Amino acid sequence: MSRAFALTLTATVSVVALAAPAHAQTAPAPQAPAPAKKPASDNVVTVTGRRLDQARDAITPSLGASQYTFTTQALSKQPGGTNLSLSKSLLQAPGVTQDSYGTIHVRNEHANLQYRLNGVIVPESISGFGTTFDPRIASEIQLITGTLPAQYGYRTAGVINFKTQSGLLDKGGEIGVYGGAFGWLEPSAMLRGSDGNVSYFLSASYLRNDIGIENPLPTRNAIHDRTTQFRPFAYVSDVLSDKSRIALFGGSFIGHFQIPNVTGVQSGFTVNGVSSYDAAKLDQNQREITHYGVATYQYAGDDLNFQVAPFVRYSQTRFTTDPNQGDVIINGYADAARLSSLVAGVQADGSYTLGGGAHTLRFGVLFQNEHTKSLVDSTVLPEQDCAIFADCVVTSDVPFQIVDRGSKTGQLYGGYVQDEWKISPQLTLNVGARYDVVHAYTRESQLSPRANLVWEPTKQTTLHIGYARNFTPPPQELIAPATVALYNNTTKQSEIRTGDPVKAEREHYFDAGVEQKFAGGLKLGLDAYYKVKRNLLDEGQFGSSLVLSPFNYAKGYAWGIEASANYTHGPLDLYANVARGEEKGKGIVSAQYFFAPDEIAYIADHYIYTDHSQKVTASGGATYSIRDGLGTLTPSLDFVYGSGLRTDDPNGIVPNGGELPGYVVFNAGLSQKFDGPGLMKGVTLRVDALNLFDKQYQIRSGTGVGVGAPQWGQRRGVFAGITKAF
Question: Is the pTM of this model over 0.85?
Answer without folding.
Answer: yes
